[in-house]
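2024-03-11 09:14:02 INFO receiving multi-entity request
2024-03-11 09:14:02 INFO entity count = two
2024-03-11 09:14:03 INFO echoing inputs for audit
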Amino acid sequence: MKRIIHSICVGFLLMSAILAPNTVLAHQQKEAYTTILVNERTGNLEIAHRFSIHDAEHVLKQHFGIKADIISSSDTQERFAQYVRLHFAIKASEIDNEMALLTVGHEVEGKYFWVYQEVKLPQKHDVLWVKMNAFQEVWPKQTNHVNFEKGRNIRSARFKKDDEWLALELKK
Amino acid sequence: MKKLVTAGVWACALGLFTSSAWSSAVKQTKGDFEDKFRQLDEVLPTPNDYRNAAGEPGKEYWQQQVDYIIDAKLDEKKRRITANERITYHNNSPYTLKYLWLQLEQNRFKPDSISELTIDFSGTGGRGPSTRAMNDDQPAGISLGKLRRNQFYDDNEIGYTITNVKAQGQDLPFTINSAQMRVDLLKPLKPGETFEFSLDFAFNILEEDAVTDRGGYEHFPDDARKGGNDIFLLAQWFPRLASYSDYEAWHNKEFLGRGEFTLEFGNYDVKMTVPADHIVASTGVLQNENDVLTATQKQRLEKAKNAKRPVFIVTADEALENEKEGTRDTKTWHFKAENVRDFAWASSRKFMWDAKGYHQGGEEQPFVMAMSYYPKEGGDLWKKYSTEAIIHTMDVYSRYTFDYPYPVSISVNGPVGGMEYPMITFNGPRTTWHEDGSRTYTQAEKRFLIGVVIHEVGHNYFPMIINSDERQWTWMDEGLNSFMDGVACREWDPTIPWGVEPRDVTAYMKSDVQVPVMTQSDSVLKLGPNAYTKPAVALNILREVILGRELFDFAFKEYAVRWKNKRPTPSDFFRTMEEASGVDLDWFWRGWFYTTDHVDISVDSVYTLRLDTKNPDIDFKRRRQEEADKPTSLFVERNKEERKRTWVELNKDVSDFYDKNDRFTVTNKERNKYKQFLADLDPWERKAFERAVDEDKNYYVINFSNLGGLVMPILLELEFKNGKKEEMMIPAEIWRRSPKKVSKLIVTDKKQELVSVVVDPHWETADVNNENNHYPPRIIPSRIESYKDEPRKGPVYRDIMHDIKTELKDPEVKEKRK
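2024-03-11 09:21:47 INFO inference complete, emitting structure
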């Protein structure tokens, strides 16, 4: 009994030092979408992250403590894209190392901000281990939705605050 | 052990859900045919005298009425409300009641409430800050926000103190169970009777930023006044009657924080005593302006009635001056509101206040005063757009529903991101403070403010007036309101990318982590796309693609008018839209609201056909040509290349009849048969046949597959050899007897030769895969491929207001040498 209590105490750690935001649209849950696309035509695994621009601005303001207008300068855009890249990773299996993803770019489209990455398509790619925790240190309620797609074969995961690596396996 | 969430588990869970949702007495027990057009007879509740089969209130429709007289005091220092409440309950139901249930929403924050007890550490639960479970890589975690929340609980008593529950001078027995309270009546309350009782209540106001509620106080420690100031937003602040309805009797599904409210209409008479330097914004009409407003403020209000732009009742300078001091004096503000389902208010000495009259016209409420209340932190962003956005909302929504029925419409800036109450909304966007003391805002924040004000003011229609049951069905107000705010926002400025487009929801709809829209609010997995985006997209498609604006707008307005100040259920909406548009929509509701299917229609192949003339002199010639058009045998070709000479070539002296007459040679035998065929035709048959032969039209058979499961109209773009394009819509009913594959015959004039076909060319149906929408098949570059081809430049979201202050600098001149 004592040991159990001890281990819980040791394991108890303060999460991020960032407070929950004080302006949350009461009705909408914060969410981002990531598509991991098997593109056999180009031989690449293509990754496209979609964020609401308004969300992105607030995250920048709270996370970096800087002016919240990411679109006003390409440097700030790049800073946000870099932030996203640091919070997303994939690997081929539980024991493999993270794949080295290439940066493709980023862009604004309407109300969304997109961040692109890619990697050469692994020979075996029916299972992917994915980690996606962007925004979650700022907004604990942020949900990151990931679709792993190969044609019509789609597997999805919703990353919540405490999710680390989740495995997505395409239908056989 | 790391978490292996295989999608298979999800698919399995959803599969079980779907099959149970579909279980009915009627089953397809052989083969795999699925009737996507099966009427919703077994799914919708049986019509009755309270709600009829047309989806309108039945001839015996009833709803309860509850009137409140409340006298409340705000203790600013203790941040506490104490109040006396007198309740009059009108039993309009045909049933006798022995007890009344009240909802005690402040108690849902008590540590022993269902809501608090069921917060899953690191998982679902309340709306507040989060925690993280322990796993192999990291210890359990708790955010500073969660610590702040816990500390707030340690330092404050949470929930109601309720005393003096009395009727006619007698104590009434009452039982509190979590966030609900049962009051036992002295004698049964018969149909048509009225019961009056009173109670005293008090509670400590929650700090919104610490606890995350839909109201509470926000503290501003940096204000000039010693100790700072607060903005108080009072919502779910008084014990109120639970709803009692024809379809659920007492609504006892307790408030857990997500599924919002199910409420009764009634009249309110509320007095709130607050510090004398506070400005109060409230549901209702101010009854005692002589007691609480200055002569100047009253004059300005009068001026605002006919002003072109908002007039300040309390200016920025006055508000700034006001927030520097405090007072021990109090004032009592008195408001009355008729026939509303809720009552909320806000109070602070920080508020500036602007107003502008809206001359709506009509008989019910020709004049409405639109008003905004905000601190300096809202600043210029609010001054320009809040009140104007309120009026724009009423203007647009009223055209699609009914005249705004209340005398005021208010937007208040406080700690809540966006929340709605009758006549009053709380909205969060603010300006950004800079070190030079200035405040600016980005274009995104401007859009956010206009968008959120339109959305929240729009909630006056859904669900404040069209009183749907939020606790059960979030989509009934959020989905309909998101659809309507898209209409209003596009009428504000169509160049701004707001509103929901079908393409916005495809990533969600094709995923295997979702539940049907018809899921109780507290159980929905992803509330945003499920209850806001998907139903809004569905209604947009219903309007723009399936029904057309004329039929849709008529039916939508009919629904609004039928259920104005009444309580509709999903079936009332489905039935009304179908009955008033005159179009069978059961398939649409079934697919979009009762399943997790998505739209993916592919065009698989196109065949060209040509009408035989039956005239052998024509048809045999065509056959000969068709044969000649076929590729020559490779074997024969290679023999030719090797210059091999055939026996026939080497022996030309040997020939017979068949060397001069091939197998397509026409004889009189065929000609006679043709003549006989013509002779045997009836006159009308001959006429039709001869005309068809003469016109010699093109016949194309196009084959489609439904890969996503959701049946939808097939929107086609046909391109012809002459460069012309034509669009057509094949109604969804084409799938009724073959839900997976269908073929469509397209007939065109002789000169209109088809060269390509595109399904859903304008992305109107939320089709998740455009790759299979083209024939001949076309490679559609992926998003990243397109980006690499030509990086797109996005619209500008610059904070120009701030950037414009940038000082002009001389460029750095770098020495350059060859």
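2024-03-11 09:21:48 INFO post-check: Chain B touches chain A through 89 residues (CB under 8 Å).
2024-03-11 09:21:48 INFO post-check: Residues 1-22, 793-797 of chain B have pLDDT under 50 and may be disordered.
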